[in-house]
């Protein structure tokens, strides 16, 4: 199920198009309910999150942008909120960043699920599995493989996922690799929900620290990450954030917000 099918099936008809990507404008609790219903009704769905960095990548990578068109995309971060306010006059109802939202969704899911983890290092994936098992004791968590594999190893990994057929598959390989990998290899034969989760397993393992709660509440987690990893992230934030806002202003000035319904 993609964004438009989910909208028609569940009545969530508010989409905001940010730089050509349709993002679901939905409250936190409604998003949890939506994903829970998708699992309960066994509706195969690919889930991703849009932030300023992902949006920039989609602008320069049409293959990635096309892949996202078949995902249920949730809003992540202050950048897309600013974009929504500029383009639509209001921010997204809630910040559904995957690092907080995915564990919360799993905790809220009372039905026992099998959750597969794919990506990060083996050590971090195993540590994340232990953390998730403590957060959501009703579920079974299985580490399928780390994220460092060759193309020759892919068929065996995909086959293992198909044999396991988890309810939820968390893919943590970074953007855009994780979305492209899901798009190319995962369908209804493999799982129900396939969620591209970025650095979630690294955060859960404790290897990569989260920002203090006060910084998260002020929507400044990106600044904390830049401080922790300046060499890797300076281009994403120092260059990427102004570029994203320039692109959003260009969208607004050139033709305003593009109706999401016209994209399909």
From TrEMBL:
Q: Which CDD domains match?
A: Glyco_transf_WecG_TagA
UniProt keyword terms in alphabetical order: Glycosyltransferase, Transferase
Protein's name in the database: WecB/TagA/CpsF family glycosyltransferase
Q: Which organism is it from?
A: Mesorhizobium captivum
Question: Organism classification, top ranks?
Answer: Bacteria, Pseudomonadati, Pseudomonadota, Alphaproteobacteria, Hyphomicrobiales
